[in-house]
Amino acid sequence: MEIKGKVPSQPIPTMNEAVSHLIESIASEEKALSRLLDTEAEHIRTFSEENLGRGVSSIEDIIKFNHSVIQFMDSVVMAEWMLLKKLDTVLQLELQGADGHYIAESRDRGEHNGGRRQVPDDLEDMRYAEWEEYDEW
């Protein structure tokens, strides 16, 4: 359906296509973060060689530089956390069937409950359940 002056609609992707696109976007973001980390490492190396080896920099300059590196790394850690959450969501989509029920993996671990994944009763159990899933990787 086209509305005058609007962009024509795209076909709705299948679940596999959507998951594939999400994984590709995660990989692309990871590659970009890798390049940023390489650039920052080179920046640190250059600062160290030019300033610290000769004793040229003042303590204030070193502290400023260190603070900028910490801010950069904080940003990278936050971006990595967001990518982890995105990946976790993709994994949940992969495990979930089209009808909203979770597929056979829960059955293999003895957690089958009428086709649905069992939900822990309280928050503490949820934390442990999540870590157990990560341990299996």
From TrEMBL:
Source domain of life is: Bacteria
Where are the stretches annotated Disordered?
103-122
Q: Which InterPro entries match?
A: A_ENA (IPR058705)
Query: What name is this protein filed under?
Result: Uncharacterized protein
